[in-house]
Amino acid sequence: MPWTATGRYDLEPAPGGLAFVQDLLNTISAGKPREPDLLEDVEVARTWLAQAFANWNEETGQPAPVVEITADDLQELRDFRHDLHRHLQPAGPDTSPKSHPVRTPTAAQTALRLDADGRIRAEARGKGWRQVASLAMIEAYQAQCADSLRRLKSCRNTRCTVTFFDRSRNNSGVWHDVRVCGNAANLRNHRARKRAAAGTA
């Protein structure tokens, strides 16, 4: 099944459960023409979440949590998405952790469970948005341990900021789509250099 939020930007999902984190981040309003924010309306958010949980279940083989999202949860979930998105911004002069501190929700709790097969699993806890945030943080932490979280990036185009998984060999990707964002940025830079050169001539 396609990941609803990520698929609308024609992106390949991140591997495994990290695709849930990517899809949450891609619920933002972005693209050209701009796609709607999937966390603005409670019914739309519930539809997105049901599909995202179904996909997560298919990717991980773990039972999807049952979460009831209410209108009161939406702002908190958008705030969490914003914090997580800022944390994943590509490194740069204006995107260091010191200049953009992340507000970590202390209520995003998890529990460790020893399964019958002897494996220890992290389980999302809380209710509503807190359980969604907990699951996203579990998947992000596991990807961090596997050294794959650094490949989940925000497009360098500040007019875009779509989240993509960088599959380049040396992890050097900066655009979610070179043709859409990279070429446009290069053209703007080229024109700016020409104007600057003309001004100094």
Topology diagram in text:
Layout (H helix, E strand, L loop, with lengths): L3 H4 L10 H8 L16 H19 L10 H17 L22 E5 L5 E5 L4 H17 L6 E3 L8 E3 L12 H23 L1
Antiparallel strand pairs: 1-2, 3-4
Helix pairs in contact: 2-3, 2-5, 4-5
Commentary on this structure:
The protein is mainly alpha-helical and 201 residues long. The chain has one domain: Jann2411-like fold, CATH 1.10.3300. 44% of the residues lie in helices and 8% in strands. The protein has helices spanning 4-7, 18-25, 42-60, 71-87, 129-145, 178-200, and strands at residues 110-114, 120-124, 152-154, 163-165. The strands form two sheets. Strands 1-2 form a two-stranded antiparallel ribbon.
Briefly characterize the structure.
The protein is built from 6 helices and 4 strands; from the N terminus they run ααααββαββα. The chain is mostly helical and 201 residues long.
Number of distinct beta strands: 4
Q: Low-confidence parts, pLDDT < 50 over ≥5 residues?
A: 91-100
Class, according to the CATH hierarchy?
Answer: Mainly Alpha
Give me the oligomer status. Answer: single chain
Strand order of the largest sheet: 1-2
Shape: globular
Tally of contiguous helical segments: 6
Helix proportion of residues, in percent? 40-55%
Major sheet attributes? 2 strands, antiparallel
H/E topology pattern: HHHHEEHEEH
What name does CATH use for the topology? Answer: Jann2411-like fold
Instruction: Report strand %.
Output: 5-15%
Q: How many separate domains make up the residues?
A: 1
Average of the residue pLDDT scores:
84
For the CA atoms, what is the radius of gyration? 19 Å
Rounded to the nearest angstrom, the distance between the terminal CA atoms is 57 Å
**Derived structural class:** mainly alpha
Q: Supply the CATH architecture.
A: Orthogonal Bundle
